[in-house]
Amino acid sequence: MMLFVKISMVRCHVFKRVYADLVVSCLNFTAGFEHSENSICPAVRMRQFYIWTLFSVSWYSAVAAQDLQPPAAWRSPNITLSREDCINIARAALETAISNLNQSAQFGDNIYESPGRLYAQMAEFDRLTNQTKYKDMLKQYFLLAEFTRPGFLDLFYNLGCEVEYPDFLAFAVTAWTSARRYTISEDEDELGTMDTKQFTYPSSCQGETLTGGTYFASDPYNTNIASTSSGFFFVLSALLAKATSNNTYIDAAVESAHFIQSHLLNISNSVVLGSIEPSPNCAVDASNLVSDCAGSGLFIEGMVVLADIMAYNTSTIDLLRSTIVDVTSNSLWHEVPTVEVITSSRP
């Protein structure tokens, strides 16, 4: 069973759902930050609506000192649509996607995380438009989604929703608890084993602990720790920490951030690599950085929330700034189409 699924690129048959993601992000971009809607890696772009909104509140003046303006080479870096136009387009896209849900609040392709993306965007739309249009609908959808897969076993089902709707917090905690069983704790790192996996792993790779790494799949024999699974857990832990001030979530967020920074963050260009296989030889997969770019977007999103929780300490801010500048200007995905059709061989 797949535990986490990378979302950096999309299949053509879910285009309308992804279009809702991209159009809703326009609502945030028009609020104060201009950049090209076609030049950035899709996953980084889909995540930036969280990032720039947070920047614009209490940190905008500090960030302005950094060179975060779109490079001159980007095509159409300015968004000219009005806020009203963005709202209307987003609403139409969301309603089209919603109309394709079945009685179980799932899509016909049976890809479990796809409705989760839609749910997150429905909540984000309500937040940006200061309304509760989708709140009751989402309550029902979440109940149906958990019935389909108890414990959710997919973090996308709770990213952001607990922030917009506090009474959704229990859903987020359920998803976090499920994923925690596949995330290496400090004790499990020392033991080199965990209850949900039927193999042993080293206590460290390249001299760094594996604490905070989240396995990609619930298969007890799958050894892959991906940047997407670790990134999703990082973001959800950070959001729960912000919502509850609970040290359990704060510690989990810090551990995930340290894991990604230590094992998957490319020090030469700040791009987050795809995955690491601690067993048997700590091999890092950097073979397809373009299609694995979701990890970079998730790392940035998690760092934004973590920076707020940690009162914008210097080291966190410096890492966040350098990562944003390097990732958004990286030439790896400047020519990537807005929608990329791919197939995945991952389990």
UniProtKB/TrEMBL annotation:
InterPro entries: 6-hairpin_glycosidase_sf, Glyco_hydro_76. It comes from the Eukaryota. GO terms for biological process: carbohydrate metabolic process. SUPFAM superfamilies: Six-hairpin glycosidases. This is Glycoside hydrolase family 76 protein.
